[in-house]
Amino acid sequence: MTFDNAELVLVGLIFLWAGFVRTGLGFGGAALGLPLMLLVGATPVYWLPIIGIHLLFFSSLTLVKSLKKVDWPYLKRSLLWIIPPTLVGVAGLLSLPDDVIVVFIYSITIFYAITWIFNTKITSHSPWVDKLLLILGGYVAGTSLTGAPLIVAVYMRHIA
């Protein structure tokens, strides 16, 4: 992809805004930034590695501050439910047409928007719903890096 100066400024502003969202909420920068980036250049495979590096860097900064507060045993148990669907999602990202992935990303974004508009929280109150949300969150994260709201719903139940 080639960008003109206006598009580069837009991408910079979107990353800045996504950073503020991530700083304020602790997650969600990719979920809200990626759909906007797709308006600039509609190829998710180009954006996701850049967003992934952005997330790894800022997640590392957040993690370093609270390393002793991490529930390591629960994290290890939950990763067994997250990693396999994430790998399936990455395989889908690489093999499905861009149009299908873009529709999937916007559908997830619309779902998150509807839950926000109606002030509905994604929550879990049972172990099987925990596993379902972790599986769905892993798959969504694999295809678009926007699975955090689904995964956070489970983690909040176990750490809050």
Strand content: under 5%
With helices defined by DSSP (H or I, 4 residues minimum), what is the helix count? Answer: 7
Please trace the helix and strand order, writing H or E for each element: HHHHHHH
Q: Please give the alpha-carbon distance between the first and last residues.
A: 43 Å
Shape: globular
What is the count of β-strands? 0
Give the overall average pLDDT: 87
Number of domains: 1
Question: Largest sheet, described in full?
Answer: none
Radius of gyration: 16 Å
Helix content: over 70%
Describe this structure in words.
- The chain is mainly α.
- It has one domain (5-159).
- Helices cover 81% and strands 0% of the residues.
- The protein is built from 7 helices and no strands.
- The protein has helices at 5-25, 29-40, 44-65, 72-95, 98-117, 127-144, 148-159.
- The longest helix is centred in the middle third of the chain and has 24 residues, at 72-95.
- It is globular, with a radius of gyration of 16 Å.
- The model has no long low-confidence stretch (mean pLDDT 87).
